[in-house]
Specification:
Two copies of one chain form a homodimer. The model of chain A has no long low-confidence stretch (mean pLDDT 94). In chain A, helix 1 crosses helix 2. Chain A is mainly α. Chain A has nine helices and no strands. At the A-B interface, helix 6, helix 7, helix 8 and helix 9 of A face helix 6, helix 7, helix 8 and helix 9 of B. Chain A binds a DNA duplex (30 and 30 nucleotides) through helix 3. Chains A, B: Pfam families: TetR_C_13_2, TetR_N. Chains A, B: It comes from Psychrobacillus lasiicapitis. Chains A, B: This is TetR/AcrR family transcriptional regulator. Chains A, B: Keywords: DNA-binding, Transcription, Transcription regulation.
Chain lengths: 183, 183
Amino acid sequence: MDTKSLIIDVATNLFQQKGYKGVGLNEIIKACNISKGSLYHHFPNGKEELLIACLQLLNEEITKDIVEIFERYPTTREAAEAMISKLVENFEAEGTLTGYTFSSIVSEMASLSEPVRNACAQLYQKIQAIYMEKLLADGFTKDKANAIALMMTASIEGAMLLCLTQKEAEPLKIISQLLPKML
Amino acid sequence: MDTKSLIIDVATNLFQQKGYKGVGLNEIIKACNISKGSLYHHFPNGKEELLIACLQLLNEEITKDIVEIFERYPTTREAAEAMISKLVENFEAEGTLTGYTFSSIVSEMASLSEPVRNACAQLYQKIQAIYMEKLLADGFTKDKANAIALMMTASIEGAMLLCLTQKEAEPLKIISQLLPKML
DNA sequence: AGTTAAAAACAGACCGGTTGGTATGGTGGA
DNA sequence: TCCACCATACCAACCGGTCTGTTTTTAACT
Protein backbone atom coordinates (compact mmCIF):
# COMPACT_ATOMS: atom_id res chain seq x y z
CA MET A 1 0.00 0.00 0.00
CA ASP A 2 1.31 3.43 -0.89
CA THR A 3 2.23 5.84 1.86
CA LYS A 4 -0.68 8.22 1.37
CA SER A 5 -3.26 5.47 1.61
CA LEU A 6 -1.50 4.07 4.64
CA ILE A 7 -1.64 7.42 6.39
CA ILE A 8 -5.33 7.86 5.65
CA ASP A 9 -6.08 4.34 6.77
CA VAL A 10 -4.25 4.58 10.05
CA ALA A 11 -5.44 8.10 10.80
CA THR A 12 -9.06 7.18 10.10
CA ASN A 13 -8.89 4.49 12.71
CA LEU A 14 -7.24 6.71 15.27
CA PHE A 15 -9.62 9.61 14.69
CA GLN A 16 -12.61 7.37 15.16
CA GLN A 17 -11.22 5.94 18.36
CA LYS A 18 -9.96 9.10 20.02
CA GLY A 19 -11.50 11.98 18.15
CA TYR A 20 -9.73 14.65 16.15
CA LYS A 21 -8.07 16.55 18.96
CA GLY A 22 -7.35 13.33 20.77
CA VAL A 23 -4.85 12.21 18.17
CA GLY A 24 -1.56 13.99 17.60
CA LEU A 25 0.45 14.01 14.41
CA ASN A 26 3.30 12.32 16.21
CA GLU A 27 1.03 9.46 17.12
CA ILE A 28 -0.04 9.09 13.52
CA ILE A 29 3.43 9.10 12.02
CA LYS A 30 4.66 6.66 14.63
CA ALA A 31 1.80 4.27 13.88
CA CYS A 32 2.63 4.56 10.18
CA ASN A 33 6.39 4.36 10.63
CA ILE A 34 6.89 7.42 8.54
CA SER A 35 8.33 10.86 9.12
CA LYS A 36 6.66 14.19 9.53
CA GLY A 37 8.12 15.37 6.26
CA SER A 38 6.40 12.52 4.50
CA LEU A 39 3.07 13.36 6.03
CA TYR A 40 3.33 17.00 5.07
CA HIS A 41 4.36 16.03 1.59
CA HIS A 42 1.07 14.25 1.04
CA PHE A 43 -1.02 16.66 3.11
CA PRO A 44 0.60 20.08 2.78
CA ASN A 45 -2.29 21.75 4.57
CA GLY A 46 -1.78 19.64 7.64
CA LYS A 47 -4.03 17.84 10.01
CA GLU A 48 -7.39 19.15 8.90
CA GLU A 49 -6.71 18.23 5.29
CA LEU A 50 -5.86 14.74 6.46
CA LEU A 51 -9.07 14.56 8.46
CA ILE A 52 -11.15 15.46 5.44
CA ALA A 53 -9.38 12.83 3.37
CA CYS A 54 -10.23 10.35 6.11
CA LEU A 55 -13.87 11.37 6.06
CA GLN A 56 -13.94 10.84 2.32
CA LEU A 57 -12.49 7.37 2.65
CA LEU A 58 -14.98 6.63 5.40
CA ASN A 59 -17.70 7.92 3.12
CA GLU A 60 -16.77 5.43 0.43
CA GLU A 61 -16.33 2.51 2.79
CA ILE A 62 -19.53 3.00 4.74
CA THR A 63 -21.53 3.69 1.63
CA LYS A 64 -20.17 0.63 -0.12
CA ASP A 65 -20.95 -1.54 2.88
CA ILE A 66 -24.50 -0.31 3.25
CA VAL A 67 -25.27 -0.40 -0.45
CA GLU A 68 -24.14 -3.99 -0.60
CA ILE A 69 -26.46 -5.01 2.21
CA PHE A 70 -29.38 -3.05 0.85
CA GLU A 71 -28.97 -4.72 -2.53
CA ARG A 72 -28.92 -8.18 -1.02
CA TYR A 73 -32.23 -7.95 0.82
CA PRO A 74 -35.62 -7.37 -0.78
CA THR A 75 -37.12 -4.90 1.68
CA THR A 76 -35.93 -2.03 3.82
CA ARG A 77 -36.95 -3.88 6.94
CA GLU A 78 -34.81 -6.91 6.23
CA ALA A 79 -31.88 -4.88 5.01
CA ALA A 80 -31.95 -2.66 8.07
CA GLU A 81 -32.10 -5.65 10.37
CA ALA A 82 -29.16 -7.25 8.61
CA MET A 83 -27.19 -4.02 8.77
CA ILE A 84 -27.79 -3.51 12.45
CA SER A 85 -26.99 -7.09 13.32
CA LYS A 86 -23.70 -6.61 11.53
CA LEU A 87 -23.07 -3.54 13.68
CA VAL A 88 -23.90 -5.55 16.78
CA GLU A 89 -21.52 -8.33 15.80
CA ASN A 90 -18.77 -5.84 15.17
CA PHE A 91 -19.37 -4.13 18.47
CA GLU A 92 -19.50 -7.31 20.50
CA ALA A 93 -16.35 -8.62 18.86
CA GLU A 94 -14.20 -5.50 19.00
CA GLY A 95 -15.87 -3.32 21.59
CA THR A 96 -15.85 -0.41 19.18
CA LEU A 97 -17.86 0.75 16.21
CA THR A 98 -14.89 1.85 14.16
CA GLY A 99 -15.72 2.10 10.52
CA TYR A 100 -19.36 2.87 11.02
CA THR A 101 -19.62 6.06 12.98
CA PHE A 102 -17.92 9.41 13.12
CA SER A 103 -20.07 11.12 15.68
CA SER A 104 -17.03 12.13 17.71
CA ILE A 105 -15.74 14.09 14.76
CA VAL A 106 -19.10 15.65 14.06
CA SER A 107 -19.69 16.91 17.54
CA GLU A 108 -16.10 18.02 18.00
CA MET A 109 -15.65 19.83 14.75
CA ALA A 110 -19.07 20.79 13.42
CA SER A 111 -18.95 24.17 15.09
CA LEU A 112 -15.23 24.75 14.52
CA SER A 113 -14.59 23.96 10.87
CA GLU A 114 -16.95 24.46 7.98
CA PRO A 115 -15.13 22.09 5.59
CA VAL A 116 -15.23 19.31 8.14
CA ARG A 117 -18.87 19.96 8.94
CA ASN A 118 -19.65 19.81 5.26
CA ALA A 119 -17.84 16.53 4.78
CA CYS A 120 -19.80 15.04 7.67
CA ALA A 121 -23.08 16.38 6.37
CA GLN A 122 -22.42 14.80 3.00
CA LEU A 123 -21.74 11.47 4.61
CA TYR A 124 -25.01 11.48 6.53
CA GLN A 125 -26.78 12.63 3.41
CA LYS A 126 -25.40 9.74 1.42
CA ILE A 127 -26.42 7.15 3.99
CA GLN A 128 -29.87 8.62 4.19
CA ALA A 129 -30.18 8.57 0.41
CA ILE A 130 -29.53 4.84 0.34
CA TYR A 131 -32.28 4.22 2.86
CA MET A 132 -34.62 6.48 0.99
CA GLU A 133 -34.11 4.79 -2.35
CA LYS A 134 -35.04 1.45 -0.82
CA LEU A 135 -38.05 2.96 0.90
CA LEU A 136 -39.29 4.37 -2.37
CA ALA A 137 -38.90 0.94 -3.92
CA ASP A 138 -40.95 -0.39 -1.02
CA GLY A 139 -43.74 1.87 -2.16
CA PHE A 140 -43.56 4.76 0.29
CA THR A 141 -44.34 8.25 -0.83
CA LYS A 142 -41.46 10.64 -1.18
CA ASP A 143 -42.31 12.51 1.99
CA LYS A 144 -42.78 9.40 4.06
CA ALA A 145 -39.62 7.85 2.69
CA ASN A 146 -37.64 10.95 3.51
CA ALA A 147 -38.93 11.09 7.06
CA ILE A 148 -38.35 7.42 7.75
CA ALA A 149 -34.86 7.52 6.28
CA LEU A 150 -34.01 10.37 8.59
CA MET A 151 -35.47 8.55 11.55
CA MET A 152 -33.38 5.51 10.73
CA THR A 153 -30.19 7.51 10.46
CA ALA A 154 -30.85 9.37 13.68
CA SER A 155 -31.92 6.41 15.78
CA ILE A 156 -29.06 4.21 14.63
CA GLU A 157 -26.51 6.94 15.23
CA GLY A 158 -28.03 7.62 18.63
CA ALA A 159 -28.11 3.95 19.49
CA MET A 160 -24.41 3.72 18.68
CA LEU A 161 -23.74 6.49 21.15
CA LEU A 162 -25.74 4.64 23.78
CA CYS A 163 -23.87 1.42 23.08
CA LEU A 164 -20.55 3.18 23.55
CA THR A 165 -21.58 4.70 26.86
CA GLN A 166 -23.17 1.55 28.23
CA LYS A 167 -20.61 -0.85 26.81
CA GLU A 168 -23.51 -3.01 25.73
CA ALA A 169 -25.01 -3.82 22.35
CA GLU A 170 -28.56 -3.81 23.64
CA PRO A 171 -29.54 -0.34 22.40
CA LEU A 172 -28.81 -1.33 18.81
CA LYS A 173 -30.69 -4.59 19.23
CA ILE A 174 -33.77 -2.86 20.58
CA ILE A 175 -33.71 -0.30 17.80
CA SER A 176 -33.62 -3.13 15.34
CA GLN A 177 -36.68 -4.72 16.92
CA LEU A 178 -38.58 -1.46 16.91
CA LEU A 179 -37.77 -0.36 13.39
CA PRO A 180 -40.49 -2.44 11.67
CA LYS A 181 -43.08 -0.43 13.57
CA MET A 182 -42.18 2.63 11.58
CA LEU A 183 -42.36 0.95 8.21
CA MET B 1 -22.21 33.21 42.42
CA ASP B 2 -19.30 31.50 44.12
CA THR B 3 -16.18 30.74 42.17
CA LYS B 4 -16.62 27.00 42.02
CA SER B 5 -20.10 27.28 40.54
CA LEU B 6 -18.84 29.85 38.09
CA ILE B 7 -16.07 27.55 36.92
CA ILE B 8 -18.46 24.65 36.45
CA ASP B 9 -20.94 26.83 34.63
CA VAL B 10 -18.44 28.32 32.21
CA ALA B 11 -16.62 25.05 31.66
CA THR B 12 -19.85 23.18 30.97
CA ASN B 13 -20.65 25.59 28.19
CA LEU B 14 -17.19 25.40 26.69
CA PHE B 15 -17.01 21.62 26.88
CA GLN B 16 -20.34 21.30 25.11
CA GLN B 17 -19.27 23.66 22.38
CA LYS B 18 -15.76 22.44 21.72
CA GLY B 19 -15.47 19.06 23.37
CA TYR B 20 -13.21 18.06 26.22
CA LYS B 21 -9.88 18.17 24.45
CA GLY B 22 -10.94 21.21 22.54
CA VAL B 23 -10.93 23.39 25.63
CA GLY B 24 -7.77 24.22 27.51
CA LEU B 25 -7.53 25.13 31.16
CA ASN B 26 -6.15 28.51 30.20
CA GLU B 27 -9.25 29.20 28.16
CA ILE B 28 -11.45 28.30 31.09
CA ILE B 29 -9.66 30.44 33.64
CA LYS B 30 -9.57 33.35 31.26
CA ALA B 31 -13.32 33.10 30.66
CA CYS B 32 -13.85 32.99 34.43
CA ASN B 33 -11.36 35.73 35.20
CA ILE B 34 -9.68 33.57 37.77
CA SER B 35 -6.22 32.12 38.21
CA LYS B 36 -4.93 28.63 37.78
CA GLY B 37 -4.32 28.35 41.48
CA SER B 38 -7.95 29.04 42.13
CA LEU B 39 -9.09 26.41 39.70
CA TYR B 40 -6.82 23.79 41.22
CA HIS B 41 -7.99 24.78 44.67
CA HIS B 42 -11.54 23.77 43.81
CA PHE B 43 -10.61 20.87 41.56
CA PRO B 44 -7.36 19.42 42.94
CA ASN B 45 -7.53 16.48 40.53
CA GLY B 46 -7.57 18.74 37.56
CA LYS B 47 -9.43 18.82 34.32
CA GLU B 48 -11.14 15.46 34.45
CA GLU B 49 -12.55 16.15 37.88
CA LEU B 50 -13.93 19.39 36.55
CA LEU B 51 -15.49 17.62 33.61
CA ILE B 52 -17.28 15.16 35.86
CA ALA B 53 -18.59 18.02 37.97
CA CYS B 54 -19.88 19.60 34.77
CA LEU B 55 -21.61 16.39 33.77
CA GLN B 56 -23.30 16.23 37.15
CA LEU B 57 -24.58 19.77 36.81
CA LEU B 58 -25.77 18.97 33.32
CA ASN B 59 -27.47 15.92 34.72
CA GLU B 60 -29.45 18.00 37.18
CA GLU B 61 -30.35 20.71 34.70
CA ILE B 62 -31.44 18.44 31.89
CA THR B 63 -33.35 16.18 34.22
CA LYS B 64 -35.13 19.08 35.86
CA ASP B 65 -36.09 20.52 32.50
CA ILE B 66 -37.44 17.28 31.14
CA VAL B 67 -39.27 16.34 34.31
CA GLU B 68 -41.03 19.67 34.32
CA ILE B 69 -42.27 19.22 30.78
CA PHE B 70 -43.32 15.63 31.35
CA GLU B 71 -45.33 16.67 34.37
CA ARG B 72 -47.12 19.40 32.50
CA TYR B 73 -48.50 17.24 29.68
CA PRO B 74 -50.88 14.33 30.11
CA THR B 75 -49.35 11.85 27.67
CA THR B 76 -45.89 10.88 26.48
CA ARG B 77 -46.74 11.95 22.98
CA GLU B 78 -47.65 15.49 23.94
CA ALA B 79 -44.76 15.83 26.36
CA ALA B 80 -42.26 14.61 23.79
CA GLU B 81 -43.60 16.98 21.19
CA ALA B 82 -43.36 19.89 23.60
CA MET B 83 -39.84 18.91 24.58
CA ILE B 84 -38.62 18.64 21.03
CA SER B 85 -40.23 21.89 20.00
CA LYS B 86 -38.36 23.52 22.85
CA LEU B 87 -35.14 22.03 21.50
CA VAL B 88 -35.98 23.35 18.06
CA GLU B 89 -36.65 26.82 19.38
CA ASN B 90 -33.40 26.82 21.26
CA PHE B 91 -31.47 25.62 18.23
CA GLU B 92 -33.02 28.12 15.86
CA ALA B 93 -32.42 30.96 18.27
CA GLU B 94 -28.85 30.20 19.30
CA GLY B 95 -27.57 27.83 16.64
CA THR B 96 -26.43 25.40 19.30
CA LEU B 97 -27.97 22.79 21.53
CA THR B 98 -25.93 23.70 24.57
CA GLY B 99 -27.53 22.45 27.73
CA TYR B 100 -29.24 19.51 26.11
CA THR B 101 -26.60 17.27 24.63
CA PHE B 102 -23.17 16.03 25.54
CA SER B 103 -22.54 13.65 22.68
CA SER B 104 -19.17 15.20 21.97
CA ILE B 105 -17.99 14.27 25.42
CA VAL B 106 -19.41 10.78 25.17
CA SER B 107 -17.74 9.93 21.92
CA GLU B 108 -14.49 11.59 22.87
CA MET B 109 -14.09 10.16 26.32
CA ALA B 110 -16.17 6.99 26.56
CA SER B 111 -13.25 4.83 25.56
CA LEU B 112 -10.63 6.84 27.41
CA SER B 113 -11.99 7.37 30.91
CA GLU B 114 -14.20 5.04 32.89
CA PRO B 115 -15.41 7.69 35.36
CA VAL B 116 -16.48 9.96 32.53
CA ARG B 117 -18.14 7.14 30.66
CA ASN B 118 -20.03 6.24 33.81
CA ALA B 119 -21.21 9.78 34.38
CA CYS B 120 -22.51 9.92 30.81
CA ALA B 121 -24.20 6.54 31.11
CA GLN B 122 -25.99 7.71 34.24
CA LEU B 123 -27.23 10.79 32.47
CA TYR B 124 -28.72 8.84 29.59
CA GLN B 125 -30.17 6.39 32.06
CA LYS B 126 -31.89 9.14 33.97
CA ILE B 127 -33.43 10.68 30.87
CA GLN B 128 -34.63 7.30 29.71
CA ALA B 129 -36.16 6.62 33.12
CA ILE B 130 -38.28 9.75 32.87
CA TYR B 131 -39.62 8.69 29.49
CA MET B 132 -40.26 5.20 30.77
CA GLU B 133 -42.23 6.32 33.79
CA LYS B 134 -44.56 8.31 31.59
CA LEU B 135 -44.91 5.44 29.17
CA LEU B 136 -45.90 3.11 31.99
CA ALA B 137 -48.50 5.66 33.07
CA ASP B 138 -49.74 5.63 29.49
CA GLY B 139 -50.43 1.94 29.90
CA PHE B 140 -47.53 0.31 28.10
CA THR B 141 -46.06 -2.90 29.39
CA LYS B 142 -42.69 -2.73 31.04
CA ASP B 143 -40.88 -4.24 28.06
CA LYS B 144 -42.58 -2.00 25.53
CA ALA B 145 -42.02 1.07 27.66
CA ASN B 146 -38.36 0.27 28.01
CA ALA B 147 -37.90 -0.23 24.30
CA ILE B 148 -39.74 2.93 23.34
CA ALA B 149 -37.91 5.02 25.92
CA LEU B 150 -34.63 3.85 24.46
CA MET B 151 -35.81 4.58 20.96
CA MET B 152 -36.78 8.07 22.00
CA THR B 153 -33.42 8.74 23.63
CA ALA B 154 -31.49 7.40 20.67
CA SER B 155 -33.48 9.11 17.95
CA ILE B 156 -33.49 12.48 19.67
CA GLU B 157 -29.79 12.32 20.38
CA GLY B 158 -29.14 11.26 16.79
CA ALA B 159 -31.38 14.00 15.46
CA MET B 160 -29.41 16.56 17.45
CA LEU B 161 -26.23 15.34 15.77
CA LEU B 162 -27.89 15.70 12.38
CA CYS B 163 -29.08 19.20 13.22
CA LEU B 164 -25.59 20.23 14.19
CA THR B 165 -24.05 18.89 10.99
CA GLN B 166 -26.74 20.29 8.72
CA LYS B 167 -27.20 23.56 10.55
CA GLU B 168 -30.92 23.01 10.24
CA ALA B 169 -33.61 22.12 12.75
CA GLU B 170 -35.48 19.89 10.35
CA PRO B 171 -34.22 16.55 11.65
CA LEU B 172 -35.65 17.26 15.08
CA LYS B 173 -38.92 18.42 13.60
CA ILE B 174 -39.30 15.28 11.53
CA ILE B 175 -38.47 13.05 14.49
CA SER B 176 -41.18 14.83 16.41
CA GLN B 177 -43.71 14.15 13.67
CA LEU B 178 -42.74 10.50 13.49
CA LEU B 179 -42.68 9.75 17.18
CA PRO B 180 -46.45 9.18 17.57
CA LYS B 181 -46.11 6.22 15.21
CA MET B 182 -44.15 4.35 17.78
CA LEU B 183 -46.57 4.97 20.61
C1' DA C 1 -15.66 43.74 70.92
C1' DG C 2 -10.91 43.16 69.77
C1' DT C 3 -7.00 40.19 68.81
C1' DT C 4 -5.05 36.41 66.68
C1' DA C 5 -4.25 32.20 64.50
C1' DA C 6 -5.67 28.94 61.37
C1' DA C 7 -7.84 27.72 57.19
C1' DA C 8 -9.85 28.67 52.87
C1' DA C 9 -9.39 31.08 48.54
C1' DC C 10 -6.79 33.03 45.17
C1' DA C 11 -2.75 34.70 42.30
C1' DG C 12 0.88 33.93 39.04
C1' DA C 13 5.38 32.19 37.86
C1' DC C 14 7.07 28.04 36.39
C1' DC C 15 7.65 23.02 34.81
C1' DG C 16 8.43 19.22 31.42
C1' DG C 17 6.22 17.58 27.67
C1' DT C 18 3.57 17.83 23.43
C1' DT C 19 1.23 20.23 19.90
C1' DG C 20 0.80 21.42 14.76
C1' DG C 21 3.74 23.18 11.53
C1' DT C 22 8.24 24.57 8.86
C1' DA C 23 12.80 24.55 6.68
C1' DT C 24 16.43 22.11 4.85
C1' DG C 25 18.71 18.36 2.98
C1' DG C 26 19.12 13.73 1.24
C1' DT C 27 17.76 9.80 -1.99
C1' DG C 28 16.17 6.99 -5.61
C1' DG C 29 14.12 6.50 -10.04
C1' DA C 30 12.73 8.63 -14.71
C1' DT D 1 19.22 16.53 -14.26
C1' DC D 2 15.12 16.75 -12.24
C1' DC D 3 11.48 15.87 -9.11
C1' DA D 4 8.51 13.15 -6.26
C1' DC D 5 9.35 11.30 -1.89
C1' DC D 6 10.99 11.04 2.51
C1' DA D 7 13.87 12.07 6.79
C1' DT D 8 15.58 15.11 10.40
C1' DA D 9 16.13 19.01 13.17
C1' DC D 10 13.82 22.61 14.78
C1' DC D 11 10.25 26.15 16.13
C1' DA D 12 6.91 28.95 18.85
C1' DA D 13 2.74 28.07 21.14
C1' DC D 14 0.28 25.63 24.11
C1' DC D 15 -0.87 21.74 27.13
C1' DG D 16 -2.16 20.05 32.01
C1' DG D 17 -0.21 20.39 36.26
C1' DT D 18 2.81 22.01 40.37
C1' DC D 19 4.84 25.31 43.14
C1' DT D 20 5.27 29.12 46.42
C1' DG D 21 3.40 32.96 48.24
C1' DT D 22 -0.37 36.42 49.17
C1' DT D 23 -4.96 37.84 50.35
C1' DT D 24 -9.35 37.09 52.46
C1' DT D 25 -12.56 34.81 55.35
C1' DT D 26 -13.65 32.20 59.45
C1' DA D 27 -13.55 30.91 64.16
C1' DA D 28 -11.81 30.78 68.75
C1' DC D 29 -10.26 32.96 72.88
C1' DT D 30 -9.65 36.76 76.01
